[in-house]
Amino acid sequence: MFDRLVLLPVGLDGTHASPALGLLWLALVASGLYHGINPGMGWPLAVSAGLLDKSPRALFRALWALAAGHLLATLLVLLPFAFLLVLAEWQRPIQIGASLLVIGFGVYRLIDRRHPRALARIPPTQLALWSFAVAIAHGAALMLVPIYLGLCQAFELDAGHEAAGALMQANLGMAVLVSLVHVTAMVGAGGCLAWLVYRHLGLKFVSRSWFNLDAVWATSLVVVGAVALAFNLVSWR
Amino acid sequence: MTMRPDPTFHASPKLAMEAPAENFAYTLLLSPDFSKPDALAVIDVKPGSPTYSQIVHTVTMPNKGDESHHFGWNACSSALSPLAGHAFVERRYLIIPGLRSSRIYIIDTKPDPTKAKIHKIIEPEEVFKKTGYSRPHTIHCGPDGIYVSTLGGGGKDGTNGPPGVFIMDCETFEVLGRWEIDRGPQTRHYDFWWNLPRDYMVTSEWALPPQFENGIVPEDLLANKYGHHLHFWDLRARRNVQTIDLGANHQMALEVRPAHDPVREYGFVGVVVDTTNLEASIWTWWREGGKFHAEKTATIPPEPAPKEKLPPLLQGFGAVPPLVTDIDLSMDDRFLYVSCWGTGEMRQYDVSDPRKPKLAGSVHIGGIARRTPHPNGKAFAAGPQMVEISRDGRRVYWTNSLYSTWDDQFYPEGVPGVEVMANVGRNGGLELDKNYFVSFPDGYRAHQIRLEGGDCSTDSFCYPSV
Fold it and tell me: How high is the pLDDT of residue A237?
């Protein structure tokens, strides 16, 4: 399994490489960068931590906590799909169902803009929990599901011939890989921004750079779901 | 809902100080005999303006007898809290709590302060029903809603259950419910504030409604039955974690002023009177090793006065107690302003070393015995009371009324509403501005002041000044 995974990110595996595959990896990294620069996913917390403790170390500690929470949320959302995909003949309905789920959540976020009040109860000392709860509540992890399913599909065209156990292993491996790539991109982008503000740009940047992404975020969910749905419907025919 | 954070939200106290100065001051006008409705006056404070130091707009309430107290904004710099993750509300609405009626007014200050108008009225029944509290007193804008402190519990006289804090939505103004989950030994309430990133709240104690609504009760005061505790809370867990008794003789612990810079884990509280010697005192509280501590760090002595200069309430004592009724901390946490409402003095302490306040400036105006006039020659009834500091720390504004029935006991000759301003020197020192003197319409007293774009007792911050 792992020799195959090693080849995945660069798309060098000759038998499976395709333009769509490259796009999926690109989308995965882009989603990470997007979540990373969104202040709502926590980079200003790292700035605040660094400044309050007067130490860059505190900034990096906060980033680790944020990454851990986001990673856990992503894995938690992807894993059920990894198991579901073992039902190989149900792959398309699963993919279509997942796309509809993501679209539905996006539409819900567009209509109901309120932020869950429970988030306000998490103390600032529990950044990992905060990051986890925010990623779940805002559908950050859900946004990755169509990309994940697309990647699983691209690499398991011959899924029907594989044993369920091996398939499950491959799906789980892919879930871990997708989560890691996403969170690395996210922490990379958020961390760079946090560091720039902490060291060079100053606190004015916090309020200046902060755009209301509520509508954009909800629309992103709808778009990701819709694109996945379109691909599935086209390739199904 | 906005696309960018409100330009009057600032990440740190330092950025708040650097922002443009205030152009307007909002001041509450109270009808002490409840014959007229209370009102909100909008005052022009822009130097050089043709209407400088004049009321340019008045919002009159539709009810009488509200006796509105420490009003505040629906949102402030705390909205930039990185934990809340959502900074897109406007600093737009003033929330005015009626201490006597339990009614709450929401005033819309946009598109222009001179066109401010009533946006919504929350009737007392809604507050009673949803919170079990009564007599809302102080408003603070939190990252997750508007926090309102109350002085009364349920029932007609507000003694059915302890008073506390409730939360309102900062956009719909819906009363959401009680804040406390575990109040510990807290049974009285007055002021509150917090350190957001350090996640604690501090509350103080004045009195229960029967002890203040019809005037100060001298027997209760001499029996040390007014509040004398500080309560420290886990802000997000909503639990009382520690209570400090300042000592029963330290009656009425009022305004709580934490350092604005969240790196500094200390603050101040003023005590109105020590019943053993009539002294007023300033206390410093701080957190160290996970525990809170408090100690008396400054005292202000009473001033002897002949009987004929004293109201009946004080004639037996032969002295004027300073009566520290309000304190306010400058945005850079350097100067603490202390209103001595009895002796008629505004003191400025340098609190760079928070446990060693140094008197840095003082002006006398009004006072029970001194009756110092304003430098412009006009009379100033009562003494300095509600004090507000401009964000840049250069101007200090204050009014003269405490509370209708208490005004009448300490200043039986009447307390016509006045608002004055003092300029602050670069390195301290305080001088009354001859050109700033707001007199209000007949029959009105003046209470809390709020400054356009935020002031030193409004905004709280999640990032330190760097």
Answer: 57
| Overall average pLDDT of the B398-408 stretch | 97
- Give the nearest chain A residue to B143 (CA atoms): A120
- Concatenating the DSSP letter of every residue in B376-433 gives TS----S---SEEE-TTSSEEEE-----HHHHHHH-TT----EEEEEEE-TTS-EEEE
Residues B198, B287: contact at Cβ < 8 Å? yes
Could you say which DSSP state residue B235 is in?
T
Dump pLDDT digits (tens) for A181-215: 999 999 999 999 999 999 999 999 998 888 888 88
Contact between residue B404 and residue B30 where contact means Cβ atoms under 8 Å apart: yes
Of the candidates B157, B151, B155, which has an alpha carbon nearest to the alpha carbon of residue B135? B151
Closest B-chain CA to A121: B236
User: C-alpha B176: how far from its chain's center?
Assistant: 23
The pair of structure tokens assigned to A215 is 């509508």
Residues in chain B whose Cβ is within 8 Å of chain A: 1-5, 9-12, 15, 80, 82-88, 143-145, 196-199, 234, 236-237, 262-263, 462-464, 466
Is this structure's pTM higher than 0.90? yes
* pLDDT at B380 exceeding the cut of 90: yes
Residue in B2, B11, B145 nearest the CB of A203: B11
pLDDT value for B123: 97
Please identify which residue in the block is written with the tokens 């000044």.
B465
A52 closest CB neighbour out of B87, B197, B234: B197
Q: Given A54, A125, A207, which is nearest B11 (Cβ)?
A: A207
Instruction: At B277, list the tokens.
Output: 């010697």
- Largest pairwise CA distance in chain B: 63
* pLDDT score of A119: 82
Domains of chain B by start residue, with CATH: 13-451 (2.130.10.10)
Stretch (H or E) spanning B296? strand B291-300
| Token pair recorded at residue A133 | 């709860």
- Which residues from chain B sit within 8 angstroms of residue A210, using beta carbons? 4-5, 80, 87
Q: Answer yes or no: are the C-beta atoms of B32 and B445 closer than 8 Å.
A: yes
What is the Cα–Cα distance from A106 to B12, expressed in whole angstroms? 34
Q: Please tell me the number of Cα atoms within 13 Å of B320 on its side-chain side.
A: 25
Residue A115 to residues A39, A127, B176, B284, Cα–Cα distance (Å): 14, 18, 15, 37
Please name the residue of chain B whose CA is at the shortest distance from the CA of residue A209. B4
**In sequence order, what E strands does B34-122 have?**
37-44, 55-64, 72-73, 93-97, 104-108, 117-122
